Amino acid sequence: MNTPTFEDAMPELEALKKFFVTAKQALGNGTITSMVGVDQRISKICQQVQKASPDMQQQYLPELNTLIELLNGYEQALRDFQANQLAEAAKAVSEDAKS
User: Fold this and answer.
1) Cα separation of 70 and 31, whole Å?
2) Closest Cα to residue 60, out of 45, 74, 72?
3) 77 band by pLDDT with thresholds 50, 70 and 90
4) Interatomic CA distance for residues 50 and 87, integer angstroms
5) Residues 73, 24 contacting (CB under 8 angstroms)
6) Which of 5, 67, 72, 96 has the fewest CB neighbours in a 10 Å radius?
7) For residue 27, what pLDDT is reported?
8) How many structural domains does the chain have?
9) DSSP annotation string for the chain
10) Would you state the pLDDT for residue 4?
11) Among residues 37, 63, 66, which one has the least CA distance to residue 49?
């Protein structure tokens, strides 16, 4: 089996980073992006990194850290979005109860 190179995983890492940037932007416009299959894509990258040499793993580290930051940023934006949705729904119910 061939040992993966840094270049082997880079297109997918870049695609995943772009995915999370785009998903966060869409969330800002009120659209929740489906995450179906994202876990498998990330798992595949992690497997490639695990199989790589220690030197190659070091090269992956900054890219993986960026991906984690983007994932965490999307998660927080999604939590904020959900909290705002709940607050708006509670406000609407409260206003209806007053009527």
Assistant:
1) 17
2) 45
3) very high
4) 43
5) yes
6) 96
7) 94
8) 1
9) -PPPPHHHHHHHHHHHHHHHHHHHHHHHTT-PPP-TTHHHHHHHHHHHHHHS-HHHHHHHHHHHHHHHHHHHHHHHHHHHHHHHHHHHHHHHHHHHHH-
10) 54
11) 63
Any domain includes 32: yes
Q: Which two tokens stand for residue 27?
A: 């969330």
Instruction: At 50, list the tokens.
Output: 């695990």
How far, in Å, CA of 80 to CA of 25, rounded?
13
Contact present, 24 and 77 (Cβ < 8 Å): yes
Q: Is 49 in contact with 64 (CB distance < 8 Å)?
A: yes
9: its two tokens: 């995983």
- Calpha distance 12→22 (Å, rounded): 15
Q: Which domain holds residue 17?
A: 7-98
Tokens matching residue 97: 């109860």
Tokens of 49: 């990194």
